[in-house]
Write a structure and sequence with these properties.
With about 325 residues, the chain is α/β, with parallel strands linked by helices. Helices cover about 35% and strands about 20% of the residues. The longest helix is centred in the middle third of the chain and has 17 residues.
């Protein structure tokens, strides 16, 4: 990969903040087998040739871009704001678009050809790129939502200095789906058993052709390779494999990932630091528990990050990513 990586400065925007610091953004392109992956490095302002630590930021599931914005939920800029918060503390960051989106549009795959491990591999490529850059010292990883599991898997294989799980699920996707199906009183036991049998086969890597009509969308043939790849991972088991400093951060008004998830990850890895942020929701903003008002924050880019979240995350990275002066 070394001979095929190139970087170019597309723009250098200045962001004003309360302490009069400013940041620079650089667009980065990584050629891959069927196109390009694209991301953005946010650099703190500093002296020429000054080295900085850097954090690889990994976004959540679905059509979510490098800034934390989802095509379905709207624009909130949560991960861009996280990058800015890190830059305020002298820490660079890289956030990237997943295959088929934004700067990585050309590397998109047909659904039937996409597997969960593609996301892990792509994040690993970005880590390798950062690790080879002499302008950066140590590399940390922050994974949000589904990106938490991806970050755990990357951190197992790469020399990450530390890892932060942000609103990360603690249950495997199979257990999550089964829990949702069981919680619906309209689903009879026979339907629950069918779903379990299908997922058992997918977990073995087998294709399932006889799908009931009521499961046509959930277990459609084109999504089965992705499901098979994802089903083999249990976040709790993967988290306990890490030997680097780790932290779990969750919010009390997160309607997607509960406090039980944070507690399960803490139980799986007792030496991890667990921080619960009062009043913070899944997109890292202050929000009430009431569902409609909570979801409204998903599409409000004017709302700032929860200040306690900014403090604990930036402090943790500063603690474990010593900046070279």
């Amino acid at each position: 990969m070394k001979n095929f990586v190139f970087i170019y400065l597309l723009f250098a925007l200045t962001f004003s903040v309360s302490n009069a610091q400013s940041f620079r953004e650089e667009e980065v392109i990584l050629p891959v087998e069927n196109g390009n992956l694209g991301g953005v490095i946010m650099m703190p302002e500093g002296k020429k040739r000054q080295k900085f630590p850097i954090v690889l930021i990994i976004q959540g599931s679905g059509p979510t871009d490098k800034d934390g914005n989802s095509a379905g939920a709207g624009k909130n800029n949560s991960l861009k704001m996280l990058a800015e918060a890190l830059a305020e503390q002298g820490i660079a960051s890289l956030r990237f678009d997943k295959r088929g989106m934004g700067l990585s549009q050309s590397a998109g795959k047909q659904e039937q050809n996409l597997v969960f491990d593609d996301f892990v591999s792509d994040a690993g490529l970005w880590f390798d790129y950062l690790a080879k850059q002499k302008r950066f010292t140590k590399v940390g990883i922050a994974g949000h939502s589904q990106g938490s599991l991806i970050g755990m898997l990357v951190a197992q294989e790469k020399p990450a200095a530390n890892f932060v799980s942000i609103a990360g699920p603690s249950l495997g996707i199979g257990e999550t789906i089964m829990g949702q199906l069981k919680s619906n009183p309209a689903n009879p036991p026979a339907v629950i058993d069918q779903a379990k049998n299908i997922m058992d086969e997918l977990k073995k890597g087998n294709k399932v052709s006889d799908i009931p009509s009521y499961f046509a969308s959930l277990f459609r043939p084109s999504i089965q390779p992705f499901m098979s790849s994802w089903l083999k991972y249990d976040p709790q088991e993967e988290f306990k494999k890490l030997s680097i400093p780790t932290m779990v951060v969750n919010g009390t008004t997160d309607i997607q990932v509960s406090m039980d998830d944070a507690n399960r990850l803490k139980t799986a890895k007792p030496d991890t630091r667990m921080i619960i942020i009062d009043g913070m929701n899944h997109v890292l903003k202050n929000a009430p528990k009431e569902r409609n008002a909570n979801i409204a924050t998903y599409s409000n880019p004017d709302l700032p990050l929860n200040p306690d979240f900014k403090l604990v995350v930036t402090s943790f990275f500063k603690e474990h990513l010593a900046t070279t002066k």
